Amino acid sequence: MEVTTYSETEFSPRQQEVLDVVLALLVEGRDGLTMTAVARRASCSKETLYKWFGDRDGLLTATVRWQASKVRAGNWDRQHLDAHALSESLEAFAANWLTVISSRTSVALNRVAIADAGSGKSDLGGIVLANGRLAIGERLKPLLEAAREAGLLLFDDTEVAFRTFFGLVGRDVQIRLLLGDPLAMSRAEIAADAARATRQFFTLFGAAKPAPGTNRN
Amino acid sequence: MEVTTYSETEFSPRQQEVLDVVLALLVEGRDGLTMTAVARRASCSKETLYKWFGDRDGLLTATVRWQASKVRAGNWDRQHLDAHALSESLEAFAANWLTVISSRTSVALNRVAIADAGSGKSDLGGIVLANGRLAIGERLKPLLEAAREAGLLLFDDTEVAFRTFFGLVGRDVQIRLLLGDPLAMSRAEIAADAARATRQFFTLFGAAKPAPGTNRN
DNA sequence: TCTGTACCGTACCGTACGGTACGGCGTCAA
DNA sequence: TTGACGCCGTACCGTACGGTACGGTACAGA
Fold first, then answer.
1. Neighbours of B13 (CB within 10 A)
2. In this structure, what are the phi and psi dihedrals at residue A206, rounded to the nearest 5 degrees?
């Protein structure tokens, strides 16, 4: 096994090309993803595919990891956490997450992971879960707790607070997209949704209650 | 084509047996569902299967319809709608819906619908969407609007209010279950979640604001 | 009793896809 | 120059599954 120079990345550039082909084929339709199709589109041989990724599941797993490594959201500013900065950070989180889950790539990948989760082996669902729902939770919770210590938020259980925020942001968007609802989210709608969710979250958990009627829409 | 006596039901008793077999196989694992397996388990011939349901997609579609016809939630009481009755109705809706989406059957069926939604044909996703997310919306919205007219709730857009309720109830439950998270929801947890979501919903949209701090968990 | 019908069980067909084998080509180091 | 290596392209294999055909049986009506 040769020591390569791209040690910080999990996959070689050529392998990344292949994985991007997988993503593209996945977006075009689940059943278009055959090993032969990947090999042809990526201009590589099936033998190489099997050598690099083991089998079909290995290829899918690598693809999920590759995609996950591409969507790492920015962190929040740890300094001067006032109400405004908190609100900005929450909105940014929400907008980023909505953008991710409404992307065609994410929808396609979640579809294969969900389909796979029914069939026992090669825990794709677990990987997607770890890099999606759980990862965002682990990144957001410190912010929530810092806000609580700063006296900006009021809650007992961080997990409950986070899950509520999650629900307010996502609502029915993900399940509708997964089921094929032609729901299009423009940048403006995403921004508006992120703002609304943040507003509602403040109403529920904010230490200083805003004026009533603020969250009617 | 013989006129049968079960005209109010979409499927004959024998056909319902077959569809229940499909559901059972689906729960046991997506890839266990082959036409041969269905025929063997249901003690019928594949020829009959194809005669009744056309093809594999037809069988799946019929199964989704059959399951949808089994989960029709109870309606709310149209009379004397006070704050208490409204709260009870919302909690009942929430608990019923959480029970449905956390059932193994629902998870399995949503998985096949989602897998299918990626592959163009035989709009299973649309059927599930129509009988799930959209159906519950159409049943809940009249209650919300009646409550608004009774001065119990305050909102501009019924859809927005409903979707918020949807998010508060479901949060991350459905996506986690679909992705294979071993999340178990006991009756007690479901009841608690329904109550919490209803409480939070009242905080956001209730005409009379409850005391602050009620929704901290 | 005869005939038609609906259905079960099973054998069969075609195909598509995962996985393997192999020949050929470019590259690099000795 | 030569040999080893990595990779491309393609041909090939086995199998599993969707879909069809067909013989056998039970039953209903004439």
1. 9
2. -70, 145
Task: Give tens-digit pLDDT for A173-208.
Answer: 999 999 999 999 999 999 999 999 999 999 999 987
Q: Which A residues 36-65 have CB within 7 Å of strand C? A: 36, 45-47, 50, 55-56
Q: B80 and B56 in one domain?
A: no
Q: Over the stretch A51-84, which tens digit does the pLDDT of each residue have?
A: 999 999 999 999 999 998 887 766 666 668 899 9
Residue A110 neighbours by CB distance under 10 Å: 25
- Enumerate residues 6+ apart whose C-beta is below 8 A from A122: A57, A58, A60, A61, A116
Question: In degrees, to the nearest 5, what angle opens at C-alpha A197 toward C-alphas A196 and A203?
Answer: 90
What token pair was written down for B146?
């009646």
Is B201 within 8 Å of B195 (Cβ atoms)? no
Asked if A212 has any chain B CB less than 8 Å from its own CB, the reply is: yes
Residues contacting A152, CB < 8 A, separation 6+: A81, A82, A83, A86, A206, A207
Tell me how far apart the alpha carbons of residues B204 and A215 are, in angstroms, rounded to a whole number. Answer: 6
Q: Tell me, yes or no, if B185 comes closer than 8 A to chain A by beta carbon.
A: no
Residues B100 and B134 in one domain: yes
Where in the sequence is the domain holding A87, given as residue range(s)?
Answer: 76-205
- Axis-axis angle for helices B104-117, B83-101 (nearest 10): 70
Tell me the C-alpha distance between A148 and B139, whole Å.
38
For A38-69, give one letter per residue: b (16+ CB within 10 A) or e.
bbebbebeeeebeebbeeeeebbbbbbebbbe
End position of a domain, from candidates A41, A69, A97: A69
> Which of the 45-84 residues on chain B come under 7 Å of nucleic strand C at their beta carbon?
45-48, 51
CATH of the domain at A34: 1.10.10.60
Cβ within 8 Å of residue B71, ≥6 positions away: B100, B106
Please name the nucleotide lying closest to A36, CA to C1': C17
Is residue B215 in some structural domain? no
CB neighbourhood size of B120 (10 A): 12
Distance between B34 CA and the closest CA of chain A, angstroms: 14
